[in-house]
Structures are given as structure tokens and as C-alpha cells.
Amino acid sequence: MDEKEHTIHTQVTPSSYLPLTEPTFYILLCLAPEKKHGYAILKDVEALSNGNVRLSTSTLYGALGRLLDQGLIERVPNDEEENTGPGLPRKAYILSKAGRRVLEAETNRMRALVAAARLRLGEECT
Amino acid sequence: MKRCAQILVRIYARMLALYPRRYRADYGEELQTVFSLVVNEAAQRGRLSVIRLGWRELRDLPAAVIREYRRERRKRKMETSTSAQTGAERSSWGETLAGLWPFLFLGPVSVTMAYLTMPAWFQYSEEPKYLSIVFVLSMLVGLGAGWAKGWPRWSYPYIGFAMVVGGLAIGGTVSSMVFTVGPEWPVLPQVLIAVGVFGLIVGILTLIARAWRPLHSLYRGIRQDWTRLSFGLFTVVSVLFGGIDLDEDPIFTLNVFVPSLILLVGALVYLRSTTRVQRILALLVSLILAVAVRVIGGKIFYGTYGAVIGIIVFIPALLELLTRPAKSLQAG
Lengths: 126, 332
Hints:
Largest sheet of chain A: 3 strands, antiparallel
Oligomer: heterodimer
Largest interface: A-B, 20 and 22 residues
Number of helices of chain A: 5
Strand order of the largest sheet of chain A: 1-3-2
Radius of gyration of chain A: 16 Å
Strand content of chain A: 5-15%
Distance between the termini of chain A: 43 Å
């Protein structure tokens, strides 16, 4: 992504991307600590969701493409030793600053939802 | 099980052909690699896992393919509008051909047909009537297509031709009203009236384009790049210079054919250029050459015509040069 396009995306407020779909949230979440290649993202999303979200490759790459267009993630060479190998993808994905802000905004939104639900439902919810 | 996984990977590789070409170039290899890893892992877990995986991929594929085509179309639209905004877009060959058709017909086709259908040596003939009908229809189709596509660069000769027709109608009425009242007028008032009539038409069209929503894209296109208007007006040159004079004889056919060919090349270079300077030069050089050939061929008065038309054609281009800083001109 060129600098100009990236600047445009970062000027958009994080709340304009909310609410995120479940797969999108998990993808951004699994990229939060470090960069990952496609296969690692698939596995991590499955693990984070306790096996509830299993993405097909087409859904994963559709979401990655959209997130790249929105400037929420970046595509970088997969050059770390443990991630490289003959059968592994040569590209990896990393959360951008804008992506991190969107992820935080979504987490805050969900936290507020949970807080509201707890307030009304009391102990049942905890 | 390993064989089953290999077959699935092979089928998947084939199915990738359903995606848009640019998407395949960007992600094709990666998708295939990731899918192979997923399949191998599923194969280790058992047949049911492989079936589940296959079903999941098959289920999501149609929506993914449609989504990618839609995204591709959106991207292309954005790229086109971005390059159109900077004026750096280059017309495709299809668009170039569409933009050249008025010049091709008014010049080489018209001259060749008139020559071929000439009943006898030294006797002038107009091109067959059906050709004129085809031309007028193609002009209407070009105008319609230009309108539908938001008036891209190639459509301006069609607008120019419509302006010529309008100009001739209004100009003819004005001149018949003015020139029949007294003795023959000197050249200067005629020139001033011609410039005035064209200025009036351009002004009225600009006001209509600004006020009427369906023509907003035309107004925006001209404001972004004034050379477009020059290109539209350049069609006038082709009409006047490329067409065969009624007093022309076959000896001068080449004298008519060559300028029309020069104007055609000028239009071609204009459409394929990416900077405003190149575009203005393409129109200017071809006009000067076309006038020069006509003057050398004995039609001295084309020098005066050329000067007048040149002023009319290049006023918008001059505006473009004056309103844009030199740097952006270089950038396109």
C-alpha cells in the first residue's frame, strides 16, 4: 500500500469500522502480538475461538484483502527463521497502527456491551 | 489418504482460475500453499476431516469469487478516477480507436471514398450517402456511450462534432443575416464573428454542463483538464481541413489526404499521451503541419483559417498551461 492511501485510511476514525465481524475481529486479534502468515492465522483464529470459528482459505484471504485495502493490516515478507520453510507462505501479515486502534475500539465497544449486560442481568451473566 | 489430499490440492489449484487475474497474481501462490498445509493436516486427522474441509472450501468459494470480482471492479474504478483526476490516464487502444473514429471518417475514409467513387477523372464526387448515415449514427452512439461512461477523454471528438454541427447551424444563420445586408465584409469581422459564435457555443455548453446534473462529469472533466476541450475543438479542424473542398480536383486529393492523416496522427498521439504538455504539443504540431501542407499545396487562405481555428482550439489549452504550475505539468 502506498503512503498516500495509507494516510487516507488512517484519517478515518476507528469507530467507522465498527462493529467488526467475528472472523475479522479474530484475525486482527491474532495479529496483535506479532506478524503471522496465512496458515498461522487460520490455526490461531481456530484456537482463539475454541474451535468455533474455522475459516476457509477463501474467507481468510478475502478478509485479509479487505483489511489490507482498509489499511488495518500490512503485508510483509515472511523472513523470520521459524516461519520460513519450503512449504510455508512467503508473505506474512502485521497489524498496522490504524488496525490496532480499530481493534482497541472494538474491544472497548464489546466491553461496554458486556458491562451493560452484566448490569441488567446481574449474577446470571458472570 | 495422501493421494486423496493430493487430488484435492490439484482441484483447488484449478479452481483458483475462477478468481480475477490480478487477485491470482497477488494471492494465488499463497492460497495454494496454505490450502496444501490445511489439507495435509486434515488428512492426518482422518477422512472425515478432509471431507469437512473440502465442503467448507466449496461452500465459501462462490461468494469469495464474486466478492473478489466486485472488489476488483471497485479498485479499477478508483484507479481510473484517480489517474483521470491527475490527468495522467492513458486511453486504452479500444478507447483510442473510439476517439479516432471521427478523425478517421472525416479525413482518410471520406477522402478515399470520394476518390474511389469519382465518376470520371477531374470530376468531383461526394462520398456515398449511406456512409454519411453510418457516420451520423456512429456519432450519436459515441455521444451516448461517452455520456454513459462519464465523458472520458475519447468522447470529446464526438462532443466537438456536435459543436461543429451546432456551430454551423448557428453560424450559418448569423452569417446569412449579417453578410446579406451589405457589401462583402472584410476578413476581420468575419473572424470575430466566427470566434464569437464558437465562444458563445462553448460558454452555453459550459453553463448547461455546470447546471444540469447529468452533464456534471463533463464539466468536472473539462475543469480538471482543459486540453480535453481543445481536443473536442480539434475535431473542427478535421472537419474543415480534412473534408474535400467543392472546388478541389483530383490533383489535390493527396493535398487533402495528407493533412487529414496528420490530424489523425495528432489525435492518436494526444489520446496515448500521459502529460498535458505532450497532449498540447500533439495538437499544436499536427495543426501547424496540416496547415503547412495545405498552404504549400496552393491553398494560401488556409493559413488564415489555421490561425483563427488555432486560436479557438488552443484557448482552453492555454488556460490549462496558465492555471497549472510547471511541476504538475511534468507529473502529468
